[in-house]
Specification:
The protein has about 160 residues and is of the alpha/beta class. Helix content is about 35%, strand content about 20%. It has helices at about 15-25, 35-40, 45-55, 75-85, 120-135, 155-164; strands at about 5, 30-35, 60-65, 100-105, 140, 145. Strands 1, 2, 3, 4, 5 and 6 form a 6-stranded parallel beta sheet that branches.
Length: about 160
């Protein structure tokens, strides 16, 4: 199974947590790490290139730090451009039967995302999951690293999620 990990981070240069995660992920076979933050420094997304990457993948994972209860803006731009192009293309079923999941990091404690402020983590991520489901992808449960700290990352759980 070929997995495509699509990553974005608004403050990539200063990242400690996600840099450590991606470094650990490099040890895995059948995994392509696609860092939107380094590929599209000018924010100009090459839609055809992105579709080619998606065609080769059996599993697609979005990885990002949770910013203001959502994705970094570059990842949202990727969704708008690439997924819209797929939907209105000659192959709108491109993502049919592929697997999609989310890995996200949050500085807050898990209790901050239990819904007592209005929405839990699964509700916050549901628009992304629904978008991929709408395009035919099978959705897997999200993996969130709460209270994220570069000195104490759950690397074995993270790598297992990438391999699953």
């Amino acid at each position: 199974m070929q997995t495509l990990l699509i990553f974005a981070h608004t403050f990539w240069e200063d990242s400690k947590i996600n840099k450590a995660l991606l470094e650990a992920a490099k040890s895995l076979d059948n995994l392509t790490i696609h860092n939107l933050s380094t590929t599209y420094k000018d924010n100009s997304i090459n839609v055809e290139s992105e579709i080619t990457l998606l065609q080769k993948a059996d599993k697609i994972i979005f990885q990002f730090p949770l910013f203001w209860f959502s994705t970094p803006s570059l990842m949202k731009e990727w969704e708008d451009r690439v997924l819209t192009a797929i939907l209105y293309s000659s192959n709108p079923k491109l993502l049919q039967d592929k697997t999609f999941s989310i890995i996200t990091t949050a500085h807050g404690e898990e209790s901050s995302y239990d819904g007592h402020h209005g929405y839990g983590i699964n509700t916050l991520l549901s628009p992304i999951n629904h978008t991929f489901a709408y395009l035919g992808a099978k959705i897997e449960e999200a993996f969130c690293i709460f209270s994220a700290n570069a000195d104490n990352l759950p690397l074995s759980e993270y790598l297992a999620k990438l391999k699953a």
